[in-house]
Design goal:
The protein is mainly alpha-helical. It has 3 helices and 2 strands; from the N terminus they run E-E-H-H-H.
Amino acid sequence: MADVGGVASDRLKSFVDRIERLEEEKAALAGDIREIYSEAKGTGFDIKVLRQIIRLRKMDASDRSEMEELIDVYKRALEMN
């Protein structure tokens, strides 16, 4: 393993190669996700709402409940109900 300026070049190249490979996979997955959203839109689903539902499902139930309660409070304060 060659050291260049105190850096193990083989180890560094390994990290860079792995990151680049994962970035390529991430780009491919992002394309797949865009296609699914496009398909959902084509069948009449609202994409903005669908994205919000996805965000909500990622949240812990108690965090989601707390957020929804705060949204209701804010909406009442702004007379949006």
